[in-house]
Design brief:
Length: 539
């Protein structure tokens, strides 16, 4: 059979309203032989990742885009030297002559994606069809990972199977999940739930349970797949398929690829970790454990209820969020509340404030609180401690490095006043001011934030009456301080106005019992009520 050689231009299909979409992966190289529909590049919008498939088989002549660049609808992605006959798909392979025929063919070919955009390009690859055609879940999952709008459908298992191909013209709807109406999403979800999804090639895997392959692996006790999360995971089609085959929930896999994209190796590494014998007992893993098996918060397409704006978390928030979460899920927190009478302390502070100010020191209540905490930590060594990684021993620290939470434009950071037991009230206040300044300017060094034994989170300058701070693990306690207020306190048969400082001590109940915590806050309150001991010169 005489196959005419022609150059086919593959262009970015209609992606709805998206412009300047990031090219996060180029999947083929010049000279590579490709089948029709072979994914050429992966694009990522705010809503979804999608592979753009080739519209022809043949040899990749040239790639016109680069990883890290951006493209818009209609941009040229690749030129493919195709040997397909116009009527039927021919063998991909060597073809010599692009020539004139290539030129004319390419015009037709490049028009194709736009003309049939929904069907052959964006529709197949955009996440929206996860919602729009739940019964064909296999199709959508094959090439996309929608990041919004698919909540209800995905819940129903729609679009979850990754093994199938989109039937031609399966999804001529908008490529944008967000563009889909709530009604569409809902009905799509219902459709998937009520059975059409059962026709998907791997309906068994789309229901959320581990795949047969995973089941055969015996020891691999993987949690069910979180379908909404899986559909949003940053991974290409073949990785999705691979994960499906192994029953791996991609939401649990950390991506090591470009922009955190999940690779085959990441999935393999995840499986290996899951298979590794857990030598350490549960208690040993608890201090640093990952909290696996947690129920998942369902994804919601908020755009269906009103206008929304998606704003990335700051770098600090991205770092501190998982740490706070790890502490929250691994440590049994209890919070002990108390009040300290700081009437005299405030009088002392006001008396010393001016002198301190002349020395360039801002004497805030926090400096006194740090001094008082050092005394309390010396009195209660188990609060100045951490569990060792085995979880079987308490490491008592003989040094007193006190951290304090600082609110900065970029998020929460915790600078540390090192050797606070050797610093008097002025030195403490000076260092507090300097570290706060550095924190706000984003200039803290790693050393400034290392080695803390105990943390103070003071919201006193802002307001509030009490709160339940999260322990800065692997520390075992954190003191929350709220705004002091004048209160009537009943003393010697009469009410007297006293300035009361609210204290909230969250503690790790594995290490500190309630009685110790109450003794600690009582001691702290008494220490704060006696400012003379706090301002005395240190030896
Ligand atoms: N009650 C009443 N007033 C208080 C107070 C308290 N408990 N604590 C501080 N104040 C006053 C200070 O005296 C100061 O008033 P003046 O300027 O009139 O003297 C004012 O509030 C502001 O103090 P500050 O914030 O400049 O200084 P600070 O030493 O108290 O706090 C810092 C420094 C870095 C801890 C603080 O700026 C900050 O970032 N706080 C937020 C911490 C946070 O976000 N915690 C939550 C973490 S999530 O668990």
């Amino acid at each position: 059979m005489n196959a005419a050689v022609r150059l086919v231009e593959v262009r970015v299909p209609d992606m709805g309203n998206f412009k300047d979409v990031a090219v996060i992966d180029v999947l083929v190289k010049p000279g590579e032989i490709i089948e029709p529909e072979a994914p050429l590049v992966t694009l990522e919008t705010e809503k979804a990742t999608m592979d753009v498939p080739s519209t022809a088989s043949g040899v990749v002549e040239k790639i016109h885009v680069a990883k890290g660049g951006t493209v818009s609808t209609g941009d040229l992605i690749a030129t493919v030297r195709s040997t397909e006959s116009a009527a039927a798909g021919a063998q991909p392979g060597a073809g010599a002559d692009g020539g004139m025929s290539g030129a004319s063919a390419s015009a037709g070919a490049s028009a194709a994606p736009a003309a049939g955009a929904g069907a052959s390009g964006a529709g197949r690859s955009a996440g929206s069809n996860a919602s729009a055609t739940p019964g064909r879940g296999s199709a959508s999952g094959a090439t996309s990972s929608a990041q919004s709008g698919a909540g209800s459908a995905a819940d129903a298992g729609a679009g979850s199977a990754a093994t199938g191909r989109a039937p031609s013209g399966a999804t001529a709807k908008s490529a944008s999940p967000a563009a889909q109406s709530p009604a569409q999403s809902k009905s799509a979800g219902t459709a998937g739930a009520t059975g059409t999804g059962a026709t998907a090639p791997s309906a068994a895997t789309s229901g959320g349970s581990a795949s047969p392959a995973a089941a055969l692996m015996g020891r691999l006790d993987l949690p069910p797949i979180n379908e909404p999360g899986f559909s949003r995971a940053h991974a290409g089609p073949s990785v999705r398929k691979f994960a499906r085959e192994l029953g791996v929930d991609l939401t649990r896999v950390k991506g090591s690829g470009f922009k955190g994209r999940i690779t085959h190796d990441d999935v393999k590494a995840f499986v290996k970790t899951s298979l590794a014998p857990s030598a350490a007992p549960t208690t040993a893993r608890a201090p640093t454990g990952g909290g696996g098996g947690l129920p998942v918060i369902p994804a919601v397409d908020f755009a269906q209820f009103g206008p929304v704006e998606t704003k990335p978390l700051s770098r600090i928030q991205k770092i501190s969020g998982p740490r706070l979460h790890a502490s929250w899920v691994n440590i049994p927190h209890v919070t002990q509340f108390d009040e300290a009478d700081i009437t005299d302390l405030e009088a002392t502070r006001n008396r010393l404030k001016e002198t301190a100010s002349k020395a360039g020191i801002k004497l805030t209540p926090l400096a006194f609180i740090i001094r008082a905490c050092v005394k309390a930590l010396q009195e209660f060594p188990q609060v100045n401690a951490s569990l060792d990684p085995s979880g079987a021993n308490l490491v008592l620290k003989k040094y007193f490095h006190v951290g304090f939470a600082a609110d900065t434009p970029n998020g929460l950071v915790v600078p540390v006043v090192h050797d606070a037991d050797h610093k008097d009230i002025y030195k403490t206040a000076r260092e507090l001011g300097e570290l706060s300044e550095k924190a706000r300017a984003g200039k803290l060094s790693p050393n400034d934030m290392q080695g803390g034994c105990f943390t103070i989170s003071s919201l006193g300058g802002i307001g509030g009456t009490a709160f339940t701070p999260i322990i800065n693990a692997p520390e075992v306690a954190i003191l929350g301080v709220s705004r002091s207020t004048m209160k009537p306190v009943y003393r010697d048969g009469t009410f007297v106005p006293r300035l009361m400082l609210p204290l909230s001590l969250s503690y790790d109940h594995r290490v500190i019992d309630g009685a110790t915590a109450a003794r600690f806050t009582t001691f702290l309150a008494q220490t704060l009520a006696n400012p003379a001991a706090l301002v005395e010169a240190l030896p």
